[in-house]
Specification:
Blueprint lengths: L19 H8 L4 H27 L7 H6 L8 H12 L8 H17 L8 H18 L15 H27 L4 H15 L3 H15 L8 H26 L3 H9 L4 H16 L1 H14 L9 E2 H10 L8 H35 L1
Helix pairs in contact: 4-7, 4-14, 4-15, 5-6, 5-7, 7-8, 7-10, 7-14, 8-10, 9-10, 10-12, 10-13, 11-12, 13-15, 14-15
């Protein structure tokens, strides 16, 4: 045995470059100034969290007692306003004796929405489920059939109206956006020019202007007594507005697809519409899933603007609930936090669903 052999001492294992601790070390504690800034921000956030817990929970008033809430002003939150006005905020001015109708109607509309989120439900019967859900919604909300009293659309409000405007406008805007995006890329000058004018005209004005035109100016152009209901006019306005923005998103996705895909589709005998439906559009839409979901989320929040045309959805119903009652008006911050939680829950759910779709698309491309 060679007497000159000396084994080398074992070296320490390399530092982890993945995982939570590695992320914290790299992003928050990479240097002394970075660590100090992180600790300072954590201290500020901890102080704010402690103040928020004291205000929102420990010293808050949860019973619908206006006198106790007045005594706690500046000390704790008054969640009693949510208990007192929650039904009005969620369901608007719908007749108090018929509140079961908007609840069941909203559920009937959410069922096809949730079913559409699962690829297992993408069957021919899904279209029947959508038709049934919409039919049940309008039958219950409007009444006039099956012995139900008639309720005009100006009394619809709250969360059912918000969901109706969002779901129907999204559902109608998407196919319009696809057609307009294809039309803008068309080789026919008339179709391309028409689509460009539509997109640039709608995108050049705010949604409030579109709603104002649809609600107040359109009836002036219609024969007397022939103007459609204000709810229909608002849905049309929101749909056209959302479709213009979404058309540009779809067009951006179409531009990511090379000419080779269309040529390959033509080489196997697919016609132009078949190529778009089976080859081009699936790839283009998959490339812009985050942007499409952003547009959906923005549209869901923009429904609050319909208050300008006297349709009181979630935020409008809140304004009505507090504006007519001076005893609870000082506690509007708590009421707005309540509807903010509703908006956040819905938007967060849509965002997580979008991330799930992106993960499935990445797995399918990796095969």
């Amino acid at each position: 045995m060679d007497q000159g052999f000396h084994p080398i001492a074992a070296r320490p294992a390399p530092a982890r470059i993945s995982g939570r601790m590695a992320w914290l070390r790299h992003n928050l504690f990479a240097s002394i100034p970075n660590a100090l800034a992180t600790l300072l921000l954590l201290a500020i956030l901890g102080w704010l969290a402690l103040k928020g817990v004291r205000w929102g929970l420990l010293q808050a008033v949860f019973v619908p007692d206006a006198d106790r809430c007045q005594a706690a002003r500046g000390i704790g939150a008054c969640w009693g306003v949510v208990v007192e006005k929650g039904t009005f905020i969620l369901l608007g001015r719908y007749p108090q004796t018929q509140l079961w109708r908007p609840l069941v109607a909203t559920l009937s509309l959410l069922i096809p929405v949730l079913a559409s989120c699962s690829s297992r439900c993408w069957k021919p019967w899904l279209a029947l489920l959508w038709a049934t859900g919409l039919g049940v919604f309008f039958a219950l909300m409007a009444g006039g059939t099956l012995g139900l009293s008639k309720v005009p659309t100006d009394q619809w409000g709250g969360l059912p109206l918000t969901i109706l405007l969002s779901v129907v406008s999204m559902g109608l805007a998407f196919p319009i956006a696809v057609l307009v995006a294809l039309g803008r890329r068309s080789t026919m000058p008339a179709i391309r020019s028409l689509c460009i004018v539509y997109i640039e005209l709608i995108r050049g004005v705010p949604l409030i202007s579109v709603l104002f035109m649809a609600s107040f100016m359109l009836p002036l152009l219609m024969p007397v007594g022939k103007s459609p209901d204000v709810l229909i006019r608002v849905i049309v306005g929101i749909t056209l507005f959302a479709a213009a923005y979404m058309a540009e998103i779809v067009r951006a996705g179409l531009q990511t697809i090379g000419h080779g895909q269309a040529e390959a589709a033509a080489s196997i005998g697919l016609r132009w519409w078949q190529a778009q439906r089976k080859v081009i559009l699936p790839q283009a839409l998959a490339a812009v899933v985050p942007s499409i979901m952003n547009n959906f989320i923005a549209l869901f929040k923009d429904t609050s603007l319909v208050t300008i045309v006297s349709l009181y959805e979630l935020t409008g119903a809140l304004s009505l609930a507090l504006g007519s009652d001076p005893n609870w008006r000082p506690f509007k911050i708590e009421a707005y936090l309540f509807i903010a939680a509703i908006y956040f829950t819905c938007c967060f759910a849509m965002s997580r669903y979008s991330l799930g779709v992106e993960r499935r698309l990445r797995r399918s491309r990796a095969r």
